[in-house]
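Why do we bother with holo predictions? Because pocket geometry can differ from the apo form. Keep that in mind while you read this record for fe (ii) ion.
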Amino acid sequence: MPLESPPPRTWPADGGARVPFWIYTDPALYAREQARIFAGPSWCYVGLAAEVPAPGDFKRATLGEQPVVLVRDASGELNVLANRCAHRGVQFCQRDFGHAREFMCPYHQWTYDLRGALKAVPLRRGLRGQGGMPADFDLAEHGLRRLAVAERHGVVFASFDRAVEPLDEYIGAAMLPLFDRVFDGRALRVLGYMRQRIRSNWKLMFENIKDPYHASLLHVFLVTFGLFRADQPSAVTMDAHGRHAALISRRGAQQASDGTAEMKSFLADFALRDPRLLDPLREFPGDATVVMQTLWPNLIIQQQSNTLATRQLVTRGPQAFDLIWTFFGYADDDEAMTARRLRQANLMGPAGLVSVDDSEMMEFSQAGVAHAPDAAAVIELGGREVADTPHMITETALRGFYRYYRRVMEI
Ligand code: FES
Ligand SMILES: [Fe+2]
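The structure, written out:
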């Protein structure tokens, strides 16, 4: 098919178990996603409160493609402000992290307080009786755009649409206990960041994390060392809408079973030269040793053994996104636990022993789908329905994701 012809805009019949490839490249659809999803009534993850611990601390973030600043004001309250001057639109904050008493736009030096209120406009009254702003110019009408903000146990979300439901309802009764399992109210300590640009559509990232099928087949490291395998006790759960999901699993041993026969990635004779790389210590209640949670529309919460991270998706056009990993532990961790978390972080990130496989597959996926807008993916593993399962041999969470996606997008 010639590339310049418009892609078909329909979803194939049997839509619950098919995903048309045009949704990974179409610019008009991407623009609609920005408006309806990232600027719509969703709670987008912005960062951790521990990243801006003191009044005046700020951090830049991007929601969809919209640049914002997360800043703690003098009263200690968290604000999320559009990073766009009310005068002529300049992105006034150019530093990723910092400390400020106010924000001054570099272009004409309009100055805002940390709640986004416009405080000063140079030459407002003109000079020697000439020029200046009109007499009725009101500072109060020209503040920065403020987003709705919600925080739960140190995790900060924002929304462009103030009609969004309360955060706890948004996360939902099924997902809240899993969220609170890692974010249990203890103070967090940020351990470091990783960033990467992946040349694929952002939805392929959510598909990847909601897809337990590949985990046992693709990842040599996970499978061989028993960190996540289809023959281990596991479950897939979703919220009532299907927009959020969690993959839950329990670590097994490095031994063959009737399940490993079909897993070409299981290499019984592989061993770690330094076993400290995997030296997991049970720290959360319950049996699960891995919980990977996806929260619509831009957050993955990773708990694999003792490595904890948020992964924030930032869309960069239909065919690329940035993945920003924030690794964290708890303020009361001892040195040994911090070292363990950091060692296990080697599994993750752009060069991670596990995650590198996923980044490569997402780019291979984009390479495959980008030139076949009228073809479609088949997601029928475990049936065609959307339902929680007490096992991992299913693509149900992908079906749930697209069921909700289609409702929001009205396609
Ligand atoms: S654009 Fe910001 S002060 Fe003019
Ligand atoms: Fe994976």
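Residues 85, 87-88, 90, 105, 107-108, 110 surround FE2/S2 (inorganic) cluster (ligand 1) (CB under 6 Å).
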